[in-house]
Amino acid sequence: MMLKEIDFPISLNFQPESGMIEPCPQVTPRHLSDLRMMFQDHQAVEKILEVEDRLIYEIRYYPFVTSHSDMALAVTKIFPGIIGHEYHMTKGHKHERPDQAEVYYCVKGEGYLLLDTLEGDFRAIQWNAGVVTHIPPMWAHRVVNTGNDVLVFMGIFHLSAGHDYDIVASKGFSYRVISVDGKPKLVEQFRNK
Ligand SMILES: [Fe+2]
């Protein structure tokens, strides 16, 4: 197939230590109030919210829009911390399009990438700087920061993949990552029907 229009390369500057990209047309902060239903200990959530709406993570986003095929880059920075006994984490989502995969790259920090089909299959990938993981289509994905420093990761996906957060909020992941004696532990959880 001959493409009539030509698109030109786009380069960004990425700072691995800070998780900044330049240019950065969109920054999305996720506060505790945005994740109220994601953490298990609702009492702990409400107690913290009485004092502050803690910033849990932020996403820097760049859409590579071309005339024929669109991709996107998202750099997420998860701040360290615990809600109840549960480590700071992303909301988690499944792609709306069932044919869309994603590549995640852990740039800095330590934690887990949780992968869950929400239909019985689950994987917890231990993550530290340098690990690159391919997330196949149909797997919900969530990143948990178990370290004392920020966790920075990069996601590269097709712009049309779509993000379904509601299915994660209603079904939940099969396991949570909690702190036991200061160390991360995976704990199976009862799944909402
Ligand atoms: Fe994704």
Poorly predicted ranges: none
Overall body shape:
globular
How many alpha or pi helices?
Answer: 2
Highest CATH level, the class = Mainly Beta
As an assembly, this protein is single chain
Number of E strands: 17
Strand proportion, as a percent range, falls in: over 45%
Let me know the largest β-sheet.
6 strands, antiparallel
What are the distinct ligands in this entry?
fe (ii) ion
CATH superfamily: Jelly Rolls
Q: Tell me the radius of gyration.
A: 17 Å
Quick description:
With 193 residues, the protein is mainly β.
Explained architecture:
This protein has helices spanning 42-51, 166-171, and strands spanning 13-15, 20-22, 26-31, 55-64, 71-78, 82-83, 86-87, 94-95, 102-108, 110-116, 122-128, 132-135, 140-145, 151-158, 163-164, 175-180, 183-188. The termini are far apart. The chain is 8% helix and 46% strand. The protein is mostly beta strands and 193 residues long. The protein has a single domain, classed as Jelly Rolls (Sandwich). The longest helix has 10 residues, at 42-51. The strands form six sheets. It has a six-stranded antiparallel β-sheet, with no helix packed on it. The protein binds fe (ii) ion (FE2).
